[in-house]
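seq/struct pair 1
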Amino acid sequence: MYTIANLRTAGRVLVIVLLAVLLLTAGCIDIRETPLPDVVTEEMNETFSTVYEHVQFSMDAMGRDVENTAVGQSGYSYTDPFLNSSLQKLRQTYPWAQWAVRYDRNGTVVAGYPVYGADTPYLRDSSVTENAFADTGYLLSQPKINTKGMDLMSVSAPVYTSSGEYDGYVTLEIDPWMYTQQMMRETNYPGYQIWMIDASGIVYSSPEGIGTGENVLISPVFADSKHAEIIQNIQTVPEGVTFGKGYDSAYIRMIEKVFLWKSMQTGGKNITVIMTEPVEEVPVVYYAADNNLTSMKDIATNVFSYAESNGQEKTLAALSDPKSRFILEEGAVFAYDVNGTLLANTERDELIGESFLNYHDGYGVETIQLLIRRSSQGGGYVPYYYPVNGKLGENTALLCLIYVQPVNETWFVGAVQPLSSTPVPYNISKRDEALDNVLTAFTYLEENGKDATLAAFMDPEDIFLKQGIRMYAVDRNGTILSDGKRPYNVGKNGFFFIDRYGGSQSRIGEMTGMNGGGYMLSLHDAPNGGIRVVLEYIKQVDDEWVIGTTVELGTVAETM
């Protein structure tokens, strides 16, 4: 298993929310000619150096491992079980890897881990051909969207026959957001944000995931900002520091930010790693929480009824009308298509037409992805943490709730509002804890097999419950295979269990796991009042079942 500790040893080496999102984390940048402020501290420089070394080392490590896997597959037939076993080992080495895949010389999938059927969501990147490897041992490819709507970048290496003929390639498909978050996890400076951009302006990774795969120099996502200007300036020299204006955490006002950058060569690409940090304190914004969930659901239902009677065009126009009948006083009303493109928003109509498919909230929840999944199940509630202004260098977010309702199979409408009026600091280490729990379970599974792993989840003397870790497993049909804290549910169908808002979290969790894995929030009644917030991380084992864990985030006062 690749870890930062291994790296060190190896070489020191709202949907005002989702919408305001990332316009853009380092967005709307104003280049200055004045001297740099005295804000680039030794800690900041050390943190950036550490992150840069993590990126450089991990890229090289992935490249070597993919190359070695490709060399190891030389001479094996496409149907040999060894292909899948070697891909399994490769994929489970890296926490940010989604799939490890073997393609033949024609670009057809012949093996992959996790194993899939006809609906295999691999990239099938047509740009990866024999000629692409002419000048590099391994190839880093820009992020592209797979069949499940995920932006994935990939590291690939060619396979040759014993006689030296090209025989396809092995690729490791990577979640870019998860990758850079893992590069940051030991820095302990939550205000820092990381970008990876190539020499042509393609965004390989961004702090919230928006704009991934887009060209920052020409993309309409960045059209209203000066982001292209700062990137062009940054790419004229291999490393440096500058400062300018960027949006605050809540995307309300422009504040001063520092930008540190350094370039590297990896996988045939010139990649610039950029770290940004706010240097201007901004006031904390408090919100008047309107906890009348009935009004939020009613307004979404009213939009749905209006859409049924008047069609999409008139509905979107009505939502964009400042005098719209669809107004939620302490929130927003919106419409998305099932590809994550914003169709309408009562608060931020300047963002209409942009894709927020891969937006991540404060805890890494891919909120729009969950809205799409919830909509596909007939609609319902989705909670998330909306990052807002807090103390300088502190992660602060507001717990919000969204209600969505599908209009048809192509688009859905919804509304969002705060569940609490007070933003709270959120603990990124909880996100890492959930991921680590699942990775530990995967290691246990690899060493001991399925039956022993399911038993271990519920054994009070085994490593999970002994450390207070709740692990669970669910098959693709919803049957609970194991649950460390709720053994009485084993054998039952979790799809029929509902949360405090009437939603089937198990069904959405299974869908999240089968779509490559990810985070989600679940809300429960706290014993002494308020809302008990739980973070879950779910990841697919194969095409039959998923493994998940829960981490308590504490109780939030319900002020609705």
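seq/struct pair 2
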Amino acid sequence: MFRDTADYVKRCETCQRTKVEQAGPAGLMGHRVVKGPWTVITADIMGPFPKSRSGFAYILVVQDLFTKWVECFALRAANGKKICEVLEEVLSRWETPRFVLTDNGTEFVNETIQAFATEHGITHTIIPPYHLQANPVERVNRVLKTMIVAFLERSSRVG
């Protein structure tokens, strides 16, 4: 069974195009100590994708670093206002985190996000540019991208 699965993945054109080498990073990496659920979360935007029939083109990915729980939200626009609306929804279901890690994209580095963080007592930490390894949600994004591409290709063949 394992060999059949491995052979299938090796022959799958979509898998070969979308999956990346799983080599470990060079050198030593520091570790982030997370004391409990929803104390540190990370967020990232994926997209733009081809617009859905409903006009959605982006996905906001939010991950709790303690439990590794991931939530994804479809967005029509990737801006501070829309992201704050989604984060408000997330905070209403879970605890307010002490820290939020994001990249330095304009959708996260703006007055709206800063005001939201201040209002909720959250420290917004920005990952250094061009250092994707520092943002753990990037691993989740890789898996999601593979799944989305495979789904879109499959649905375009069927429909």
